[in-house]
Design brief:
single chain; alpha+beta
Length: 143
Amino acid sequence: MNCEKPRSQRGFSVLDGEKYLINKQIDRRNKIDRQATINLMELTEANVWQALKTVIDPELNIDIVSLGLIYQVQVSEGRVKIVMTLTTPGCPLAGMFDTLVKDALVPFTELDLDRDVALELTFDPPWVPDMISPEARAELGFD
């Protein structure tokens, strides 16, 4: 997430983020209601990584895995622990990621998203642009 630019230059305000969260919560409920039609996935670390690739940074329009924001995924005894970071500690959109990540895990029907998913936010090590995948770097024009 690129939180280093002033808000006026990012084109995405905190109020927009709150509206986005409300819409995502409605979408999440709709997805849960339609789970019978979703292609359900087996709960494995590899599948959780794949699911996290569907979480798109709302400012950069690139998935959070390719941005290097996901540090670790652990799956154990039907529970998932995800360790992630943000590009800056003071990012105003930080609160959105809990909902976005849990939305990505909806296809894992054996998970109670509120009980079985732990999202840990860390800044150790701090995120640096070198963590972005080569494909995402090219898309962002960094190479």
